[in-house]
Specification:
- By secondary structure, the chain is an alpha+beta fold.
- The protein contains three helices and two strands.
- The chain has a two-stranded parallel sheet.
Length: 70
């Protein structure tokens, strides 16, 4: 983990999967919401200025209702 916090290393995958599923179920039942899901696996906005600017630009955009994946 980039963050490397010890307490995060003990969080079980099953818990995270359940959390993800719960959020997605909620989002899918509320299509009027504007949801933006950003894959940050290759983004390091804490250490890379370009990534930070990219994230900054993403959060200032206008998005349509529904789920937008980036």
């Amino acid at each position: 983990s980039v963050r490397g916090r010890a307490y995060e290393s003990v969080i079980k995958d099953e818990y995270l999967s359940g959390l993800h599923a719960g959020y997605m179920e909620y989002f899918n039942h509320h299509p009027e919401l504007r949801i933006v899901i950003v894959d940050v696996n290759r983004i390091n906005f804490a250490d890379r200025e370009d990534d930070y600017r990219f994230m900054e630009e993403l959060i200032t955009r206008q998005y349509p209702a529904g789920i937008t994946r980036i």
